[in-house]
Specification:
Strand content of chain A: 15-25%
CATH superfamily of the largest domain in chain B: Sulfite Reductase Hemoprotein, domain 1
Oligomer: heterodimer
CATH class of chain A: Alpha Beta
CATH architecture of the largest domain in chain B: 2-Layer Sandwich
Number of domains of chain A: 1
Strand order of the largest sheet of chain B: 1-2-5-4-13
Shape of chain A: globular
CATH class of the largest domain in chain B: Alpha Beta
Structural class of chain A: alpha/beta
Structural class of chain B: alpha+beta
Number of helices of chain B: 18
Strand content of chain B: 15-25%
Largest interface: A-B, 41 and 44 residues
Order of helices and strands of chain A: EEEHEEHEHEHH
Number of strands of chain A: 7
CATH topology of chain A: Rossmann fold
Chain lengths: 159, 554
């Protein structure tokens, strides 16, 4: 069973991952976007987006989806950061999981963009990777973890 | 200038701690090279041909004397006693040791400096007019908006892994001294029909392999929408910019591929979701940003006396008179002048400055210019607020240390990247070419007669030396392992921006001074009275220059 980071702790994940080769995924299995689009009942569904698959088709079903996985085939492809933030800004409140080849030094940024779960292809040292979630006590710009930019929160202290 | 509060300080300190941990893990073999690469780049660290290079951020080119002294100290302790001013107004160290970089960053943090996002595929240092706040032709000081952009873009979680690097420049004056047409985003402060100053936004300009003049995406935007609009542009770019080919990954390629109207539509669509949201600037945020750039405590000066004295000094010392004419500019406050200090003395790499010179400038800025210094994208330094009566004393001190070269705006005020001597990307050396030109054209009277000429040299297609927008541009190219130089003419970074045209087949390094000589003599023959090199070129076109340069010798 794969181990993931979820809500700031290491845990085990029971949901079967994507299998693009099956016509009809198991009831609790994560669907590819193509499979998910075929689902007649999207209640409780789970779907994985790849780079180049912006979240537009999901936007009308955000309250029905329980899990969205955004896959990072390479850690330098940052499209998923924008997909995540867009999903959260449009009101998605289910689990938003980063999957694939990202690195622990990206966890803080990923978390700020709205990810609350992390399934790293290298799960050998998730306990150490947890450190990547922290590091900064303050941020200048608005993000999902702190929707108010610093300029709306900074005390008008004299310089 | 902007002064950190405890929050700003914490952010920079925590960034240093983060990078120290990353460097330790890299050196311990826990982070593979490929994964460390973007981490170090986003902290300014390149691994170059001979040694690492650390690029230190100088937000919109503004520094104080304390920071200059710290840079001098760092360059002595951790480097070879000199630093380099880059074409993005940043400061580069060419010989730091990787293991010591976290210590250098910690030293910088003690004087409110950092190297965050000076490299990598993220939003880079925002640049502006080196005469911001003191220029006679300024509508509004652009620096508060640069600082607002700096804060917004610093450690932005969504835009740290863009398809490619992203550069923003802001201009607030009639003349464009920030090259806004050649940036991923160029912002100009302009009035609307009710005379309210807002933002005119250009997108998709750039140099590099495919030089492009920016396209107009927004005619006039209320300033409060600055960040939400930028965020919308960046989000469209981050989602749709090409990632399959790094030479096609800049936003200019996306804008060209989509067409500016379709691109604008996508941005406006994204903007709908962000507009009037929490990132909309508050009046207090703008007032706070402005409060850091208020005018210093100018003295009331008796202009007539000051001018008479200056005239007298100029008459007695013609060398000083030339320096005043070439290296100083009118200031919006009577009795003050803007002084540009040339880092283009013959025999020194353009933009290089020694630790002693940094310290001297720190001292002179304390004595004569409210303790502030600016770096320019032409790789010079500026003391922006010098009383006319102090010019002579200032000049004497500069002369004694080789910093009084009176060549600003002339042929030898060359913009030049470090090139093949240092940079691992370069196809060819650029510094020896610059030096050969400076040596050949060392006669100041001849340079002054030629008038304003911008000569820019890049050692490769990446165009760090801005060769496309030089009146004369030189590009180093590699042909089967040999270094050649392509020459282009007619580029300009002004508001009437243009991209230079290639003259013809490339040249050997040793032929370049002769080629330049022929170009100049063609100009001198063809010019009408008062016509600059660029104006003559624009009137007669490239043909006469081409004929002269490639004519067979008989």
């Amino acid at each position: 069973m794969p181990r993931i980071i979820k809500h700031g702790a290491v845990t085990e994940d029971t949901r079967p991952g994507v299998d693009p080769d099956v016509a009809i995924p198991a009831p609790d299995q994560v669907c590819t976007l193509e499979q998910w689009l075929q689902l007649t009942d999207k209640e409780g569904s789970a779907v994985q987006l790849e780079p180049g698959q912006p979240p537009a088709p999901l936007l009308d079903h955000l309250d029905q989806i329980h899990l969205i996985v955004i896959n990072f085939p390479v850690f330098t492809d940052g499209r998923g950061f924008s997909y995540a933030r867009e999903l959260r800004q449009r009101g998605y409140s289910g689990e938003l999981r980063a999957g694939g080849h990202f690195i622990r030094d990206q966890l803080n940024y990923l978390h700020r963009c709205g990810f609350d779960a992390f399934q790293m292809s290298d799960d050998s040292n998730l306990e150490a990777a947890l450190a990547g979630l922290d590091g900064f006590t303050e941020h200048y710009q608005a993000a999902i973890d702190q929707p108010l930019p610093l300029f709306r929160r900074r005390k008008q202290a004299a310089p | 200038m902007y002064v950190y509060d405890q929050i700003d300080q914490n952010i920079v300190d925590e960034r240093v701690a983060q990078f120290r941990d990353q460097t330790d893990r890299f050196l311990a073999g826990e982070i593979p090279e490929a994964e460390f690469l973007p981490l170090r780049l986003q902290n300014g660290l390149y691994l170059q041909r001979l040694a690492p290079m650390l690029r230190i951020a100088v937000p919109y080119g503004l520094m104080n004397s304390t920071q200059l002294r710290k840079l001098a100290e760092i360059s002595r302790v951790y480097d070879k006693g000199y630093a380099h001013i880059s074409t993005r107004q940043n400061v580069q160290l060419n010989w730091p040791r990787l293991a010591e970089v976290p210590d250098i960053l910690a030293e910088l943090a003690t004087v409110q400096m950092h190297a965050i996002q000076t490299s990598g595929n993220c939003i880079r240092n925002t640049t502006t007019d080196q005469f911001a706040g003191v220029a006679c032709d300024e509508l509004e000081d652009p620096r508060p908006y640069c600082e607002i952009i700096r804060q917004w873009s610093t450690l932005h979680p969504e835009f740290a892994f863009l398809p490619r690097k992203f550069k923003i420049a802001v201009c607030g004056s009639t003349q464009d001294r920030a090259a806004i047409h050649n940036h991923d985003i160029g912002i100009e402060l302009v009035p609307n029909e009710h005379n309210e100053i807002g933002l005119r936004i250009l997108v998709g300009g750039g140099l590099g392999r495919t030089p492009v003049i920016g396209s107009l995406i927004c005619e006039w935007l209320d300033k409060k929408h600055l960040l939400t609009y930028l965020e919308a542009i960046l989000r469209v770019y981050n989602q749709r910019g090409r990632r399959d080919n790094k030479y096609k990954a800049r936003i200019k390629i996306l804008v060209k591929a989509m067409g500016v109207d379709v691109f604008r539509e996508a941005v406006e669509n994204e903007w709908k979701a962000l507009k009037d949201g929490p990132s909309t600037l508050t009046e207090e945020a703008i007032v706070r940003a402005r409060s850091f750039f208020e005018a210093p405590d100018y003295q009331v000066i008796d202009i007539d006396t000051a001018n008479a004295e200056l005239e007298d000094q100029c008459t007695r010392d013609p060398v000083f008179a030339q320096w005043v004419k070439r290296n100083t500019e009118s200031h919006r406050v009577p009795g003050y002048r803007i002084v540009t200090i040339s880092l283009k003395a013959t025999g020194f790499a353009p933009g290089d400055i020694t630790a002693e010179q940094l310290e001297l400038l720190a001292e002179l800025s304390d004595l004569y210019a409210f303790g502030e210094i600016r770096s320019t994208h032409q790789q010079n330094m500026v003391l922006a607020d010098v009383p006319t009566a102090k010019l002579y004393a200032l000049w004497q001190r500069l002369q004694a240390t080789g910093l009084a070269t009176a060549n600003i705006g002339t042929l030898t005020d060359i913009i030049c990247c470090p090139g093949g001597d240092y940079c691992s990307l370069a196809n060819a050396k650029s510094l020896p070419v610059a030096e050969a030109i400076q040596v050949r054209f060392d006669n100041l009277d001849y340079l002054y007669d030629l008038g304003p000429i911008e000569l820019n040299i890049s050692g490769c297609m990446n165009a760090c030396g801005h060769h496309h927008i030089g009146h004369i541009g030189i590009l180093g190219v590699d042909k089967k392992g040999q270094e050649f130089y392509q020459v282009c003419l007619g580029g300009s970074q002004s508001k009437e921006a243009s991209i230079g045209k290639i003259l013809g087949p490339s040249f050997n390094q040793e032929d370049i001074p002769e080629v330049i000589e022929k170009l100049l003599s063609t100009y001198v023959t063809l010019r009408t009275e008062e016509e600059s090199f660029l104006e003559t070129y624009r009137r007669v076109g490239i043909a006469p220059f081409k004929e002269r340069v490639y004519a067979q010798d008989h």
